[in-house]
């Protein structure tokens, strides 16, 4: 009798897994979709040299190439206007090194497979959104993405941007693919199943320490993961407005002070505005590409 009941439970579980909604697939950009490392370092060398600085060393290269551009400019060129320096960076990269930036090995085939199998696919990046879109267009990849969010700076901003992307794609579950341990932490805090791309051995330990759920250097392995047991069903994206509902009556009993209420309302208003903005921007890209 017990074996019979177990078999029925297994059958029900497998059916539920088959009928489960597909997870959204989110990528960071640099090092996950595009191999930008050579261009990033060359561009920073140029900008630093223009300002009479020789800053890049083997010790700080990893930090510099993974940090948001504005943060790098503020830290290493504190006497300069960071916005002007960031503009110099973008201009030099786009005018001199854009052809050096190419898709990561295997990512194009993986994206084609994702779209063929009806996955919703997006990008959340610390880069300016316009830069991400320009590079995707240059390599004929822009139509592969349903949502593109840029300027996701610190850990909290990235987690919020990931949640925004999930909301735009109506996703209950999400798989986040990145080569950054910081992004792994942000995606984990948003409730995502996380995949770390380890293109070099030196990145394996930071990825493990950040708590990545799966490590690989091959997109074919990610495809196999998606075709196998749906491990991501154990993870669920929880939007901020849903957290109170999950807590039930206890959440209702606690009343915020007027100042806290105002602050929360402002934050929610800002997030709603950002969601609408991202929705409009992503709609523009789709319409432009359809016209072509």
Automatic annotation (TrEMBL):
Q: Where is this region: Disordered?
A: 242-292
Record bears the keyword Membrane: no
Q: Which domain of life is it from?
A: Bacteria
- GO: which molecular function terms? phosphoglycolate phosphatase activity
Q: Where is the composition biased (Basic and acidic residues)?
A: 252-266, 275-285
Q: Which UniProt keywords apply?
A: Hydrolase
What's a GO cellular component annotated to this UniProt protein?
cytosol
GO biological process terms, semicolon-separated: DNA repair
InterPro entries documented for this protein: HAD-like_hydrolase_sf, HAD-like_sf, HAD_2, HAD_sf, PGP-like_dom2
| Name of the featured protein | HAD family hydrolase
The species this protein belongs to is: Grylomicrobium aquisgranensis
